[in-house]
Design goal:
Elements: E1 6-14, E2 19-26, H1 32-41, E3 56-62, E4 68-78, E5 86-95, H2 97-102, H3 107-116, H4 144-152, H5 156-168, E6 171-175, H6 180-189, E7 201-202, E8 215-217, H7 222-229, E9 234-238, H8 252-262, H9 266-274, H10 285-297, H11 302-305, H12 309-313, H13 325-328, H14 335-339, H15 380-389, H16 405-411, H17 413-430, H18 434-451, H19 453-474, H20 483-497
Parallel strand pairs: 6-8, 6-9, 7-8
Antiparallel strand pairs: 1-2, 1-5, 3-4, 3-7, 4-5
Helix pairs in contact: 5-8, 8-10, 15-19, 17-18, 17-19, 18-19, 18-20, 19-20
């Protein structure tokens, strides 16, 4: 059951009690101890990292009562005293442990929900009174769309270095691109929910030893970066510079994150983080990472690539005459053969589990088959499943359309990587994963707009072919009929066919 969220505003004003920066308004449920904490943590004059009127910061820190403060700081007009500079205005939400857990211990998710609820003002007005409120809803453990963007920029290795630096540092200043807010939000999504409260942060405030944040964004100014590097217990990570090390320097939890992001497995990451682990702390992460890496290395992919009962029965059927001759010469890959490690596995192929050693440069693929027998580089997973479908009796589904090596090469490695990630998301969505379905709803229109219909036309054909085979197997009277999963397959097909 959701608990009451209390509010407070900290800004510069002249009141009956005093003049200057102070808690100018609070709801009745804010205790005096927490109000004193806010006076320590909240920023005052000239504390925002940026100087313009659009400057802002998202902040998170613990309070004496055991609750947490999730706040947003903005530049709101000018100082009442006329001393110059923008007035710094911070709207604080005091949330219980239970309410924060409702949003997966993710302050960004809670703040977005509160803003959508209309609880956070964006004008910087001093309210006459504040009341507590109940915030409905919840949040997923992982923001798939955010991690997909961060896997592209700054990339899996830089994100893993950020995770490692955050775990090893008492206080870390980070500079991108992308922005400090996106990097810190991404870091939160890379940690188990049980560990997220160990990282008080601010995304857009200047460093101050008075405010003991563990993470904060930096401006990137060379003089500021040098000054920060000389502050006691402060580490500086500049992700805009060439990487100081390779993936070999990663260990523990950071290595696990690198393997998952490099393989585009945000859905798998969400599954791992969704499992409740009471009392888990960051001190437990090295052992947990080792266990998860070992588990992933030992995964048997039989269940992931097992065809449905009807599709499986077709393996004994003769191939149709319209199957391309060269395609018939290809040996059929079974689930058993897929489970064996390939010499040079593709970065997004489940045959290369995230726990196994990966190439030093993420996204670099091994040699591919040559000639017209090679499936499109972004459809390895669907080409494999298509071979089982090729034994069917339906004429149009004998074999997936194949492209030449030249066609795939013309797309470029970056486009192929994005298509391979799309493969993973579509495959998981067809398999019934609801998180993947949510991500697909964002990813498909985005890629369609960026890459165009011509590039994605073949992707759509192969996805629909696999979806139809999957749907047919789910409707087989001899199979265990699952209406929910069948419904999601139809949902995937509708999304792919939208605006065609």
């Amino acid at each position: 059951m959701a608990t009451m969220i209390e509010q407070a505003v900290f800004t510069s004003a002249q009141t009956e009690r005093s003049a200057g920066y102070q808690v100018v308004a609070k709801s009745p449920g804010v205790c005096e101890a927490d109000a004193r904490d806010l006076a320590v943590w909240c920023p005052s004059h000239d504390s925002l990292l940026e100087s313009g009127p659009q400057a802002s910061s998202v902040n998170f820190h613990p309070l004496s009562s055991g609750a947490y403060c999730v706040s947003r700081t903005i530049a709101a007009g000018w100082e009442y005293s006329g001393r110059g500079g923008h007035r710094v205005y911070t709207h604080c939400l005091i949330v219980s442990r239970e309410t924060l857990a409702q949003f997966a211990n993710n302050p960004f998710s809670l703040l977005r929900a509160a803003m959508a609820h209309g609880a956070i003002t964006t004008r910087g007005e001093i309210p006459a009174n504040l009341e507590g409120f109940v915030l409905p809803g919840s949040a997923a453990s992982v923001d798939h769309a955010l991690l997909s963007r961060l896997a592209a920029n700054p990339g899996p290795l830089r994100m893993a270095l950020l995770v490692q630096a955050a775990l090893e540092s008492r206080c870390l200043a980070v500079f991108g691109p992308p922005s400090g807010e996106k990097l810190i939000a991404g870091l939160v999504n890379c940690l188990p929910p049980e560990c997220r409260t160990e990282f008080p942060f601010c995304t857009g405030l200047k460093y101050s030893s008075r405010r003991p944040f563990r993470l904060f964004g930096a401006s990137g100014d060379p003089a500021e970066m040098r000054w920060l590097a000389h502050q006691p217990n402060v580490a500086v990570l500049d992700l805009s510079r060439p990487l100081p090390c390779s993936q070999a320097a990663l260990d523990g939890w950071a290595r696990l994150i690198f393997q998952l992001l490099a393989a585009g497995r945000t859905t798998l990451l969400a599954t791992l983080l969704s499992k409740a682990r009471p009392d888990l702390t960051t001190a437990d992460l090295p052992a947990l990472a080792l266990q998860l890496l070992e588990d992933l290395e030992a995964l048997n992919l039989r269940s992931a690539f097992q065809p449905g009962p009807l599709a499986a029965s077709r393996k004994a059927a003769p191939k149709q005459p319209n199957t391309p001759p060269k395609a018939r010469q290809q040996p059929e890959e079974s689930a058993d053969s897929l489970a064996q490690p390939a010499e040079t596995p593709a970065a997004h192929d489940d045959a290369h589990p995230p726990g196994a050693s990966a190439p030093e440069v993420p996204g670099k693929h091994g040699p591919r088959p040559s000639g017209s027998t090679m499936a499109h580089g972004a459809h390895r997973k669907f080409a494999k499943t298509g071979q089982a479908e090729g034994h069917g009796t339906t004429a149009g589904r004998a074999s997936p359309r194949l492209r030449t090596h030249t066609d795939s090469a013309d797309l470029g490695p970056e486009v192929l990587e994005r298509l391979e990630h799309l493969d993973d998301v579509v495959f998981d969505a067809i398999a019934g994963n609801t998180h993947a379905m949510e991500e697909l709803g964002v990813l498909w229109p985005q890629l369609l707009g960026q890459l165009g219909e011509e590039i994605l036309a073949e992707s759509r054909q192969q996805y629909l072919r696999w979806a139809l085979a999957s749907l047919e197997s789910r409707l087989d009277p001899q199979a265990d009929y699952d209406p929910e999963r069948a419904s999601q397959v139809v949902e995937v097909m509708c999304l792919l066919l939208e605006n065609v």
